[in-house]
Specification:
It contains one helix and seven strands; from the N terminus they run ββββαβββ. With about 80 residues, the protein is mainly β. The protein has a single domain, classed as SH3 type barrels (Roll). The strands form two sheets. Strands 4-3-2-1-7 form a five-stranded antiparallel β-sheet. The protein has a two-stranded antiparallel sheet with strand order 5-6. Strand 3 and strand 4 form a beta hairpin. The longest helix is centred in the middle third of the chain and has 4 residues.
């Protein structure tokens, strides 16, 4: 899977997210994905996750699917 910066992604559980950028952890230099929830979340809107986890596949009902699936460009659909 290729990361498309500033794109919209759908998590395999159904919620949508806005990928803001791929960044690095300051100590380990691990690549991290910086993204925003596009739904109300009492824990906060902005999140990071290891890039390796963001692009990995998960197995659901015996079928491998992407954890996050690219669904399109941002094009101003959400204000930051």
């Amino acid at each position: 899977m290729t990361i498309k910066k500033n794109g919209l992604y759908r998590h395999y559980k159904g919620n949508n997210y806005l990928l803001l950028d791929v960044v690095r952890h300051s100590e380990t230099l691990e690549e991290m994905v910086f993204y925003k929830c596009l739904y109300e979340n009492e824990l906060g809107d902005l999140w990071v996750r290891p890039l390796s986890m963001f692009i990995e596949n998960v197995t659901i009902d015996g079928k491998e699917i992407p954890r996050f699936e690219y669904i399109g460009d941002h094009k101003g659909k959400d204000r930051l």
